[in-house]
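Hey, can you fold this one?
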Amino acid sequence: MEDKFSDLVQQNLFSESPDIPYLKSIIESNLELNSEDTNELIYSITLKLNSSLFPPVTGIELILTEGCNLACSYCFEKDMAGHSKMPRNIAAKAIDLLIDYSNDCSELHITYFGGEPLLNYSVMRYITEYAQEQSSLRNKSINFNMTTNGTLLNRSIVEYLSSNKIKVLVSVDGLRRTHDKHRKDKNGNGTFDRVYKNLKLLKEKQPWIGIKMTIMPIECKYLFDDVINLYNMGVNQFLIGPATGVSWSAQTINTYLSQLEKLYEWYFSYPRSDLRINEFDEIENKPFFGCHAGRTNIAVGIDGQISPCSKILAINNTNLLSKLGNVYLGLTNFKNRLRLNECSELHVECERMGISEEYRGGCYASNYYETGSLFIPSMKDHNFDKARHSLSEKFQQLKRITN
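Sure. Predicted structure:
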């Protein structure tokens, strides 16, 4: 049955705009299948084609809800409509798809995302247990992660997260003066005190605390002091990144880079076993252009539509940019996945701009916010990346001289 329609499915899926309703109607009329059986047939053929053409998918972001209890000024998801939540059946389908598309890979990654994922805590619990059960049946292991604003954590939730080994990354942009400037609740009140209280609660069960810092231009002058003090308050790991979709002047870029250099010097001058700054430790030259979005990682929206990543999904969640498919039929948009994997357009643009030897194209979403295209590099991101590499080389030289 599959062989008979495999060529038809393949031809359709490699078209510029796959016509899935037409494909389904042809199969249903010729094989006299119902809609569910037709979906299963297309899913099976699509899975085989993806497995033969592309890398395995090993990571998935689940957008458990579009809603959030905060009103952060820089939020890249602020244009997502409504407060809808992902239902159990779609979440389960997403897990099934991840396991199917992982091929022979035994270690998988699930990230709970939003909005604020804890607003859909019941589905998060359900899907955690479902994923554990299904992965065990296929001899695979799951690493769970969650990105949260930290305001809804309580003792019961923290205990559940701990017992199920769900690693929590909390969004904290700095000390109170920095954090409360942009991370406010719906009433316009700052959230630092609530988040810090819950961080201490989390640390009782998860001793290693990681935070995600989004740096706004006007607050970048506080970066060094904020990191030092947050470390002294119990934070162990920092993911630091400049805010996207906002304007950075030459002056604020220089201030940010000088703060990074100061922080870099402090970090490597006094190594600490209880501290990690990802942006300094994970500087690497990838063997491919672009990133893992659409390559080994995907994001699933509340309605089951599949995007390369949560940031790209948030650009327009009603008409997905570079849509890959849905949880019912699989990754059906082969042209889009091919563009993300080959990344020839981004490579050409980097060559045209003279940065292809030192840069791998950066974040697709950041590119889009600055240039209007996933495949034209953001020069702001390039400059930040170049500065981090320069810092790394500088301190590696100092280490060699010292040793």
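The mean pLDDT is 91. Let me know if you want another pass with a different chain boundary.
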